[in-house]
Design brief:
The protein has two domains: 3-98 and 210-257, 3-Layer(aba) Sandwich (Rossmann fold); 102-208, Rossmann fold. It has eleven helices and nine strands. The chain has helices at 18-27, 49-66, 76-89, 102-108, 120-124, 126-135, 148-154, 161-175, 193-200, 210-223, 245-257, and strands at residues 8-12, 33-37, 70-73, 95-96, 113-118, 140-145, 181-184, 205-208, 236-240. The protein has a five-stranded parallel sheet with strand order 4-3-1-2-9, sandwiched between helices. Strands 6-5-7-8 form a four-stranded parallel sheet. α9 (193-200) links the parallel β7 (181-184) and β8. The radius of gyration is 18 Å and the shape is globular. The structure holds D-glutamic acid. D-glutamic acid binds next to α3.
Length: 259
């Protein structure tokens, strides 16, 4: 089979990576995608690194077995825990990770107040510590775990008062210092954009890493001459671990919110 015709595999701990899938379909409408959401094991962000590495390897192993030309790890947490070992295991497949979009935030607001939000694991891992080190002194950079949003997205509770109360409690002290930008360093968080916007107000830029990650995925395929060459008509298949018909309905709903 012509390798260019193979789909691009995308994985996340659950529904969050759909924010990346939406961006990928927009940028590469002629490509086919298989999305694997590990909802049976979500959330990843509160687990230890070794467990997340094993779970991520299982998801990626499944996608590789199905036959894919590239993998996008659409999960900051899984990227922190597993991207290095995956690249060693699958030398022939480009593996694209995602990280909190601190670079565009600092470039956009040099010297500004920037809050990076993510899961606890992402913020404590070496990968993020290294990223932070690269931008130290170029802006006032603060960090805030916000992992509970994941549960609200997974359970379809985005409009709940409980989510608003949680965001208010955690983010209000930060808005008091006058934030220039808030980085959404977890792919679940963009689905709570409206709720976050209500608390941080219109003057704070809200930045996520989906577009940058997908541009990198496109570059890697171009470099290897692996694009289909079509400009439309790609097929998207979504799969989840643990079976719940409700998942597909919620996945469709969330994808629609990102159109
Ligand atoms: N969506 C994942 C991320 O980008 C994490 C969600 C989880 O904790 O499972 O970090």
């Amino acid at each position: 089979m012509d390798r260019r015709e193979l789909p691009i595999g995308i994985m996340d701990s659950g529904l969050g990576g759909l924010s990346v899938l939406g961006e990928a379909v927009r940028l590469m409408p002629g490509e086919n995608f298989i999305y694997y959401g590990d909802s049976a094991n979500a959330p990843y962000g509160i687990k230890d690194k070794e467990e997340i590495r094993q779970l991520t390897e299982t998801c990626v192993g499944y996608l590789v077995e199905r036959g894919v030309k590239e993998i996008i790890i659409a999960c900051n947490t899984a990227t922190s825990a597993a991207v290095n070992s995956l690249r060693e295991t699958y030398e022939d497949i480009p593996i694209i990770g995602i990280e909190p979009a601190l670079k565009p935030a600092v470039l956009g607001f040099p010297g500004g107040n920037i809050l990076v939000t993510a899961t606890e694991l992402t913020l404590r891992e070496q990968k993020f510590r290294h990223l932070l080190h690269c931008y130290e002194g170029k802006a006032q950079i603060y960090v805030q775990p916000l992992g509970r949003i994941v549960e609200f997205v997974e359970r379809g509770l985005l409009d709940s008062e409980e989510l608003t109360a949680y965001l208010e409690e955690v983010l209000s002290p930060w808005t008091a210092i006058g934030l220039d930008a808030i980085v959404l360093g977890c792919t679940h968080f963009p689905f709570a954009l409206k709720q976050i916007r209500q608390i941080v107000g219109e003057r704070t830029a809200i930045i996520d890493g989906a577009a940058g990650t997908v541009r990198e995925a496109l570059r890697q395929l171009e470099r290897r001459d692996l694009l289909t060459g079509r400009s439309h008509g790609g097929i998207v298949e979504t799969i989840q671990s643990g079976s719940d018909g409700e998942w597909l309905r919620r996945a469709k709903e969330l994808l629609d919110t990102r159109k």
